[in-house]
Design goal:
Shape: globular
Number of helices: 8
Number of strands: 0
Helix content: 55-70%
Oligomer: single chain
Radius of gyration: 21 Å
Structural class: mainly alpha
């Protein structure tokens, strides 16, 4: 009996769904920050109301950890890593010249997915606590090692980048630029704002929301790019299982 099944992936629908989810989480986060920063604009009817309001604010804030936006970002990064490793597997089977670059790229996004949940990057702040903040631009010190790592990875992927077709050069560049604009660029701006005006304002909440949303949109664009790359260069992937190993 033929047990083969076909899974059709509609790239446009996947991308649109991820974008809509991002916009929903952005809106919920901003709404929660409005409630947090402007308590006089509404009334609380009792302890139950207060409990669920605090829960809503905490679990949908993009500026805190271990909540819905954090897990959403983690899922996006894992999905990107999975697609990259899928491409790398095919490249290895064909002994492609750039197969190791695909693996390295997959490892980068796998690490980013772990870091998103474990917040490893912020631990590096302690190593650079004595570094000057440059008028607040380096208020968040982890951007120092982060910038160095990005520069090194950029050098590592130069040859890989230029071998891509022009269409994918543009898509990979745009997705990287949008992600780094959120991950590093917005962090510089929000750090300067925090050093000058503090973090307890809706303006700061808006800055951090922009920062997180740029990261999301950068990864979503990368996922779109990877799916289009699979569609163009691989089209169909067959999984085969060795039945001889299925003995219990």
């Amino acid at each position: 009996m033929d047990n083969r099944q076909t899974i059709n992936i509609k790239i446009r629908q996947v991308t649109v769904t991820l974008v809509i989810l991002s916009l929903v989480f952005i809106g919920l986060s901003l709404l929660g920050q409005w409630y947090r920063l402007f308590p006089d604009s509404y009334s609380i009817s009792g302890p139950t109301h207060e409990f669920f309001l605090d829960l809503f604010i905490d679990k949908f804030s993009v500026n805190t950890e271990n909540n819905v936006p954090t897990y959403f970002n983690t899922v996006l990064l894992i999905l990107a890593a999975f697609l990259i490793f899928l491409i790398a597997t095919v490249k290895f089977s064909g002994r492609d010249r750039y197969r190791y670059e695909w693996v390295l790229l997959g490892l980068v996004f796998l690490y980013l997915s772990v870091d998103e949940s474990a917040v490893i990057h912020e631990s590096f702040t302690r190593l650079f606590k004595d570094a000057p903040d440059v008028n607040g631009w380096l208020h968040y010190k982890w951007v120092i090692p982060g910038s160095v790592i990005v520069a090194l990875l950029g050098l590592a992927f130069v040859r890989f980048f230029f071998h891509l077709e022009n269409r994918y050069k543009l898509l990979f560049f745009l997705s990287s630029a949008v992600y780094l604009a959120g991950g590093l660029g917005s962090e510089l701006i929000s750090g300067r704002y925090a050093s000058q005006f503090g973090t307890k304002s809706f303006s700061y909440a808006a800055l951090t929301t922009i920062e997180e949303s740029l990261e999301w949109f950068g990864v979503i664009l990368l996922i779109f790019t990877l799916l289009k790359y699979l569609e163009t260069h691989i089209a169909e992937i067959n999984l085969q299982f060795n039945k001889k190993s299925d003995r219990f």
